[in-house]
Amino acid sequence: MSRSRTIPGGLSALKAARQQAAYLAIRAGIGAISVWPPEVVLDAAGSLGRTYASMNKRRLTRAMQNLAVAFPGWDEARRREAAIGAHEHLFKFGVEFAYAPRLLSEDSWPDHLELGDLGAAIRGLISGRPCILITGHCGNWELLAYALALMGFPMHALYRPLDLPPMDRWLTIGSIDKKDWLPLFGASWQQRGGRILVGGVGSGFGGRSLCLAQSEPPELPYEVAVSVKLDDEAGAAGLVPPGAVGDFGGTEGRIGVAADAPP
Prior knowledge:
- The protein is α+β, with helices and mostly antiparallel strands.
- The protein has helices at about 15-35, 40-55, 55-70, 75-105, 120-125, 140-150, 165-170; strands spanning about 5, 10, 180-185, 185-190, 195-200, 210-215, 235-240, 245-250, 255-260.
- Among the domains are: about 105-170, no CATH class; about 180-260, no CATH class.
- Helix 2 (about 40-55) runs antiparallel to helix 4 and helix 3 (about 55-70) packs across helix 4 (about 75-105).
- The longest helix is centred in the middle third of the chain and has 28 residues, at about 75-105.
- The N and C termini lie far apart (about 60 Å).
């Protein structure tokens, strides 16, 4: 009887290798498609999606069964075409997602996005109160938050981790590790190469935002050393070390230190 070697975390070495291979293939594909114009790649992706749906009988059957529940008046041919069309759209979405950072920027998004009536949503966003955007899986829903962020609205996305861990880690590069730090009051906190970066304006008083250490403090006495670099004078941010009731941070061009030992 053959046994598969297990790596830390309980994942078999074979499964981990397959996941890594799939991740590398996806990354290579994302890099390769940027060589051709989007319309050419979209047509190819649509054809690939239809082929994938036709070959993957299990997923196609499941999709048709779900459509039968949602649309009991549809015949089998219509359910099959809708199920295949969903896979076609999914593959096209993958291409559009790959092109998004290249085509959509703070200056170019009006050339590629057509906005509908956003009056009610904009009023909620500029009201100064917390606002939650809830949308169904219709169209390219991921572009909604992306576009609003390009317009200058600070956004925080809630998502389910991808089933492919290497791909999920790649998409969240630079994100604050929630096991170590807890951001509060908005702003954009990132972690890179041992540095913690914060940008934007928080929702606290005076545009303030905090980032609280989640780890247990060491035994007393101990020292905490923090180097703070300010790029501009907008907003205010505070970094709270383990066990402290104050913070290190900067506001209006000045560096402030207010840290007390835990009781």
